[in-house]
Design a protein that fits this description.
- This protein has 191 residues and is an alpha/beta fold.
- It contains seven helices and seven strands.
């Protein structure tokens, strides 16, 4: 069994799709959900699926290795970032080298980096007047929104689209592709 942990900071709509996708999978199991916000909606979603949760504080996350010990106790093989807003610390990057996957709501390298998350991305896309945007699923490293691009999917941007309309188009792509791409990557990985 391949055990994954989902890290999320918000409402958890992508986490829900991942949990649904792997709920009865015979090779992949979501074994832990981690959040940096004790009131994040993703925690209630995890509990509704019977998945254990962990809430991490900033100092313990960056200055200790309690999170790593919890991941190891749950036999976590892969970490999936589904709207987790903190930079992942070096000790987790080292332990899970090449096995931390993130989704970004734009076509990286465009519209990425520190501060580029959520509606900030869609507002920047709108302001730039680009004709397409999309999603990028990628591994991570020590900087925001870098790492190996594993998958991209595009959607057109109409001149009249608002940032909210762009966000809805991108979220639909995230919900459609994230879990199946995770499954393909994990089942085809030599690690």
């Amino acid at each position: 069994m391949i055990h994954i942990a989902i890290f999320a900071s918000g409402t958890g709509s992508n986490a829900r799709k991942i949990l649904e996708h792997f709920q009865h999978h015979d090779q992949i199991r979501v074994s832990l959900v981690v959040s940096n916000k004790p009131t994040a909606g993703v925690l209630a979603i995890a509990e509704s699926f019977g998945v254990p949760t962990l809430v991490v504080g900033r100092s313990s996350f960056y200055e200790g290795e309690g999170c790593l010990r919890t991941l190891e106790a749950h036999q976590i093989d892969w970490v999936i970032l589904a709207g987790f807003l903190w930079l992942v610390p070096g000790y987790l990057l080292e332990r899970y080298a090449g096995r931390i996957i993130n989704i970004h709501p734009a076509l990286l390298p465009s519209f990425g980096g520190k501060g580029m998350y959520g509606m900030h991305v869609h507002e920047a896309v709108r302001a730039a007047g680009v004709l397409e945007t999309g999603i990028t699923i990628h591994t991570i490293d020590e900087e925001y929104d870098r790492g190996e691009v594993l998958f991209q999917e595009r959607v057109s941007v109409e001149p009249t689209d608002t940032a909210q309309e762009i966000a809805a188009k991108v979220l639909a792509l995230e919900h459609q592709h994230f879990a199946p791409v995770i499954e393909k990557i994990l089942l085809n990985s030599p690690t």
